Amino acid sequence: MSENKSPDALVNVLGWYSDTIECRVSPYFDERPANVEVNTLVVNHLSTIAGTFSQPFVEQLFMGNLASESSKQLKQLIGLRVSSHFFIQQDGYIVQYVPLHMRAWFAKQTMTDSSINPHDFSIGIELENIGRPFYRKEQYQSLIALTQRIMSDFPEITADHIVGFHEITSQSNATIQDNFDWTYFFEQLKKVKN
Fold it and tell me: How deeply is 191 buried, as exposed, middle or buried, from its count of CB atoms within 10 A (0-12, 13-18, 19+)?
C-alpha cells in the first residue's frame, strides 16, 4: 500500500474522488477537446517490472520521477510521459492521478485510425498486474465499486462502453484480455447496480 501524502491544492477541485480515494497529481495530463463527451471506460493492467508488485515504480512513472539509477528494465521508462486516471494496486488500494475532466495519457499509440484519440473521450483505470495468472479479489472489488461511481457520474458510460485497452490500441503488449475475467466483472457490476 502506498504511503499517504498530504493532498496537493489541486486535489479538492472538480474531477477528484478525494473523499474516498488517495489523490496525487501527475504532471502528465491535459485538457479534453471542447464539446467532447466522456463515454468510455478503459481497463488495462500495468507493472513496471513483470512480476514485481507493491513497489513505488508505477507511482514514480506516473509522477515523472523514476530514478536515473533504476534497473535496466526501468531505465527504458525514464522520460516516458504516461499516466492514468486511476491505479488499483494488488491489495485493492486505489490512487487517482488525473482529474476526471482532464485527459490522462495512458496509451503511447492509439487506435489504428490516427484521427481518433481515445484519451479525448475516455477514463483510464490501470490494474497492478503483469506476469501473474490472475487478478486478485480485492482488485475486482475495488474496480467494481470505482466503475459504479464513474458510471453514476458519467451516464454515457454504460456497460457496453467499458473496454479493455486492447480494444482501443494497436499496441502488441495490450493483453489484459488474456487473464482478466470480464464475465465475472460484468456479472458483479450488474449485481451492484441492481
Answer: exposed
